[in-house]
Automatic annotation (TrEMBL):
It comes from the Bacteria. One of the essential components for the initiation of protein synthesis. Protects formylmethionyl-tRNA from spontaneous hydrolysis and promotes its binding to the 30S ribosomal subunits. Also involved in the hydrolysis of GTP during the formation of the 70S ribosomal complex. The keyword Disulfide bond does not apply. Residues 78-248 form the Tr-type G domain. Belongs to the TRAFAC class translation factor GTPase superfamily. Classic translation factor GTPase family. IF-2 subfamily. This is Translation initiation factor IF-2. It is found in: Cytoplasm. Keywords: Cytoplasm, GTP-binding, Initiation factor, Nucleotide-binding, Protein biosynthesis. The lineage of its organism: Bacteria, Pseudomonadati, Pseudomonadota, Alphaproteobacteria, Sneathiellales. GTP binds at residues 87-94, 134-138, 188-191.
Length: 371
């Protein structure tokens, strides 16, 4: 993708696009501002106009982020599991997320005005913490996965005991399996007279989900989101599963994570919720988030409280973003502002080029279909 639009090249040099076009004409190239030129030509133009060209290959720009490097074994500490709730419509995903949220011992103390930031944490009486993604449904899960994001450690599959396995239950099983994420079955609505948990366990067998009672190793818990029964057992199951997964991260490094939600708010501008995967995010950190970048001006937790920092598995809302990150974008703290800006602009350029190519292709297709 070593191409740049004439306009973008002009912007980067703070020159007028007409001057770039004139320069190109001198080189025997006719181009409009929206057209793209190759890297060699761009370099000629840059030098012709008295600037110094600096080519940045993808690897050069992105390498500093160290997204792929492994943390040394001795730096790893246990982290909270990140849990997503999936299941068929009306089986009780939202109700269950609400009920679980209320079990948080900290919110209880604070009087609990909860903010919707796309994820929340529950602190149990035992001191253990669980992070829940509170955008239920597999759309969010799939959308994030399509962007290459893997934030979920465990999927809670909600199945209503009076309705059993339904199409979206099967969908969710497929998604979780494809992502290699372990499932815990929450058999919900067990308060209902028509509840038949055995039927649920039986039917799950047909979809190769073998719960414990059926000789398998998938944890399953009978719950009622309505009257709160079984929630403690569900939380125990989550903790047990997470122990088996040995979830760990290095909290002592530049933070990296995933954007789980973003929105524009009056008075606050662009705000995004980031789920930190490793490292610790702090106020003042320079960062890149997809093709957006910025410097952390404030951090807010899911209770709307200002916090100083956020470590692994902690969802946190950040203020101070230039641009528009989207759910599933990766997030990384950079050593300085220049680096963040360089990476963001580079990615933005790639996105634009992709769009231009897509539009061009669209036009050609339209031309052919018109014939
Ligand atoms: P979602 O579509 O999966 O998010 O399902 P909701 O949480 O919106 O629940 C759908 C309906 O089922 C609502 O009317 C809930 O009040 C009801 N519901 C959810 N959980 C329970 C439960 O444990 N018992 C009973 N009786 N009703 C429930
Ligand atoms: Mg719902």
């Amino acid at each position: 993708p070593e191409v740049i639009s004439v306009q973008e090249l002009a912007n980067r040099m703070s020159e007028r696009s007409v001057d770039v076009i004139k320069c190109l004409m001198k080189l025997g190239i006719m181009a409009t501002a929206n057209q793209t030129i190759d890297a060699d030509t761009a370099e000629l133009v840059v030098e012709e106009l008295g600037h110094t060209a600096k080519r940045v290959a993808e690897s050069d720009v992105e390498i500093g982020l160290g997204m792929d490097d492994q943390d040394a074994e001795e730096t790893l500490l246990p982290r909270a599991p990140v849990v997503a709730v999936m299941g068929h419509v009306d089986h009780g995903k939202t109700s269950l997320l609400d009920a679980l949220r209320k079990t948080d011992v900290v919110s209880g103390e604070a009087g609990g005005i909860t903010q919707h930031i796309g994820a929340y944490q529950v602190k149990l009486a035992s001191g253990n913490v669980i992070t829940f993604l509170d955008t239920p449904g597999h759309e969010a899960f799939t959308a994030m996965r399509m962007r290459g994001a893997s934030v979920t450690d465990i999927v809670i599959l909600v199945v209503a005991a009076d309705d059993s396995v339904m199409p979206q239950t099967i969908e969710a099983i497929k998604h979780a399996k494809a992502a290699g994420v372990p499932i815990i079955i929450a058999i919900n609505k067990c308060d209902k007279p028509a509840a038949n948990p055995d039927k649920v366990r039986q039917e799950l067998l047909q979809h190769e989900v073998f719960v414990e009672d059926m000789g398998g190793d998938v944890l399953s818990v009978e719950v009622s989101a309505l009257n709160g029964t079984g929630l403690d057992k569900l939380q125990d199951a989550i903790l047990l599963q997470s122990e088996m997964l040995e979830l760990r991260a290095n909290p002592e490094r530049a933070a990296q994570g995933t954007v789980v939600e973003s929105k524009i708010e009056t008075g606050r501008g662009m705000v995004a919720t980031v789920l930190v995967k490793r490292g610790t995010l702090r106020i003042g950190d320079n960062f890149v988030a997809g093709s957006a970048y910025g410097k952390v001006r404030a951090l807010l937790d899911h209770r709307g409280n200002q916090v100083e920092e956020a470590g692994p598995s902690v969802p946190v809302e950040i203020l101070g973003i230039q641009g528009a990150p989207v759910a599933g974008d990766d997030f990384a703290v950079t050593e300085n502002e220049g680096k963040a800006k360089e990476i963001a602009e580079y990615r933005l350029r790639l996105e634009k080029e992709k769009k231009v190519t897509a539009t061009a292709r669209g036009t050609i297709e339209q031309m052919f279909s018109a014939i």
